[in-house]
Amino acid sequence: MAQEDFENAGAECMRFAAPGRVNLIGEHTDYSGGFVMPAAIDFRTVAAIRGGSGGIRIDSENFHETVEYSATEIPSAGRQHWSDYPMGVAWSLSQEGIRIPGFELSLSGDVPLGAGLSSSASIEVATAFALLALAGREMPLARIALACQRAENDYVGARCGIMDQFIACAGRVDHALMLDCRSLEYRLLPIPPEVRIVICNSMVKHEHAGGGYNTRRREVEEGTRILHRFRPAIAELRDARETDLNACAGQMPENVFRRCRHIITENKRVEDAAAALERGDLAAFGALMVDAHRSMRDDFQASCEELDILVEIASTLPGCCGARMTGGGFGGCTVNLVRQESAEEFRDRIRERYRMATGFDAEVYLCRASGGACRLA
Ligand code: ADP
Ligand code: MG
């Protein structure tokens, strides 16, 4: 059902929105306690909610589908359906001791689904805000983010770090957020007003994307175990320096060494990128994006031909300060910082040249860093 019809039919409802996100730098660092730098974008999921008469009814305008559940028996695991996301949040909040009453929820989003811009975190966080309001409860943002991450990890069954849910909660207009994924401390960093965040969707997702992500996580875990034996203070890769890794090079397979080198150097790049934004140094920031892409391509080996082509084309276009693949890899999107006045031309040129090179029509989104989840009037 259209969300508008939901709002007009029946008792008054409350509305909440949560954004998608793009990661500017810091890829695959989140699950080893490292640093990431996402920005919330101006694409979002809106959740409209009202109390129900005992049961649970959830409608997705995107999927043109309504599902019903019993409020007294929230299933304890997902069933491979879009409703796992909101139901996972209901389950996760009830695990935190929040009593979830019956409700009617309408979901509608313009975050492209499955493109790596985290429509999943946006639907989770919008749902969490809605359910907490209905239950009359408040929670610190970090706890909301953790509850949503648990929904995705343990209920939906998708491994993901804390970044997506955290930025969907705590994003700030015209700012990126550097997050310490271990302590959840963060710093807001101004994005210079002269640039736009331009996201290019390669429109490909390679078959092995999910498997590749899990393989990389295993390789990182293996490297961490070896480094921990070498220096017990290394609990996560975040604690390791390049010199530690070099000292262990002989004890680990080449691929594991490279995965670790990506993460260790990437953490340093995020810190340098934060300093660059703080002093408004776009050239330095752009150079770090380029290095980060190379590291994902060559050391982490999670890029793909289409993403490399997009980055390659971007680097030749006027006004582009930096470009790199973003997200888990093996397809999905690139993120580009492009001077405001060149952004539209950048969009047209990159689409044209990507089509010539690959035959695919890229979708290109001109974004602004936006705020985190909120209640709508
Ligand atoms: P991403 O987070 O990159 O967009 P995911 O595979 O993690 O990709 O999450 C996408 C899934 O989230 C969709 O396939 C769907 O199940 C769910 N989802 C996101 N937004 C909505 C929505 N508005 N309505 C219903 N389900 C949604
Ligand atoms: Mg997701």
Structural class: alpha+beta
CATH topology term of the domain at 3-190 and 372-376: Ribosomal Protein S5, domain 2
State mean pLDDT (0 to 100 scale). Answer: 96
Count of helix runs = 11
CATH architecture of the domain at 3-190 and 372-376: 2-Layer Sandwich
Number of strands: 12
CATH class of the domain at 3-190 and 372-376: Alpha Beta
Rg (C-alpha, Å) = 21 Å
How would you summarize what this structure contains?
By secondary structure, the chain is an alpha+beta fold. The protein has eleven helices and twelve strands.
Name a few traits of the molecule.
377 residues, alpha+beta, Ribosomal Protein S5, domain 2, eight-stranded mixed sheet, four-stranded antiparallel sheet, 42% helix, binds adenosine-5'-diphosphate, binds magnesium ion
Task: List strands and helices in order, with pairings.
Blueprint: H1 3-8, E1 14-25, E2 35-51, E3 55-60, E4 65-70, H2 84-95, E5 103-109, H3 119-135, H4 141-156, H5 163-170, E6 175-180, E7 186-190, E8 195-205, H6 209-230, H7 242-248, H8 254-278, H9 282-299, H10 305-316, E9 320-326, E10 331-339, H11 343-358, E11 363-367, E12 374-376
Parallel strand pairs: 3-5
Antiparallel strand pairs: 1-2, 1-12, 2-5, 2-6, 3-4, 6-7, 8-10, 8-11, 9-10
Helix pairs in contact: 2-3, 2-4, 3-4, 3-5, 4-5, 6-8, 8-9, 10-11
The protein binds adenosine-5'-diphosphate and magnesium ion (MG).
The site of magnesium ion (MG) has 2 residues, from loops.
